[in-house]
Write a structure and sequence with these properties.
The chain is mainly β and 190 residues long. The chain folds into two domains: 45 residues; 133 residues, Porin (Beta Barrel), CATH 2.40.160.20. Helices cover 14% and strands 49% of the residues. It contains two helices and eleven strands, in the order ααβββββββββββ. Strands 1, 2, 3, 4, 5, 6, 7, 8, 9, 10 and 11 form an eleven-stranded antiparallel sheet that branches. It is globular.
Length: 190
């Protein structure tokens, strides 16, 4: 059986190795799951399709303080850019991440912000995730992987409307080579 952890580890490895291997690895995972899987016959496993990579700039965190939930910080989003096979553009300033260091050692993020595509369409994103801190660091890029997130989109009618009714998963990491910046890679489930 292909465990949830194995799938999450595969997604992390695929983002580090390169996006061109994504489809092949997803096919291999599906074949592995079929061999000896307790899943009913005919069950389709989701495949991840790359949507975009987003380089987000941040300003210094504002300390909200310790609450019953843990230590909360507000991290303002100041801008950035995103690009993928079907869309690209800019991250608009004015969003924020309501970051929480929980008392059990787990971190959670809840970011809300806007993207403006190169064809001037504004997309709203709410991106939530929970993780246990830094899991790995890429020695070449300095990127530090933190957690998986589940972004949801609000798009106006038209070209990007498909994002309103699609499920997504993303990786969230920090970059050592840029102060106050995170790298988000978004994939849709197909």
């Amino acid at each position: 059986m292909l465990s949830r952890r194995a799938v999450l580890n595969a997604v992390t490895a695929m983002s580090a190795v390169g996006l061109s291997t994504l489809a092949a690895a997803a096919g291999d995972a599906a074949e592995q799951a079929k061999a000896g899987s307790p899943l009913p016959a005919g069950v389709q496993l989701p495949i991840l399709a790359f949507v975009y990579e987003c380089d987000v700039t941040l300003s210094d965190a504002e300390d909200f303080g310790v609450t019953a939930e843990g230590h909360r910080r507000i991290i303002p989003i100041t801008g950035g850019s995103f690009k993928g096979p079907e869309l690209r553009g800019q991250v608009l300033s004015g969003g924020a991440d309501w970051n929480l260091a929980r008392s059990d050692g787990t971190r959670s993020v809840e970011a809300a912000y806007y993207l403006r595509t190169d064809d001037s369409v504004i997309l709203r994103i709410v991106n939530k995730g929970v993780g246990g801190g830094v899991r790995r660091e890429d020695p070449e890029t300095g990127e530090r992987f933190f957690m998986f997130t589940t972004p949801t989109f609000e798009a106006p009618a038209g070209k990007y409307e498909w994002m309103n009714h699609t499920s997504f998963v993303a990786t969230l990491g920090a970059r050592r080579d840029a102060k106050n910046a995170v790298l988000i890679r978004v994939f849709r489930l197909v």
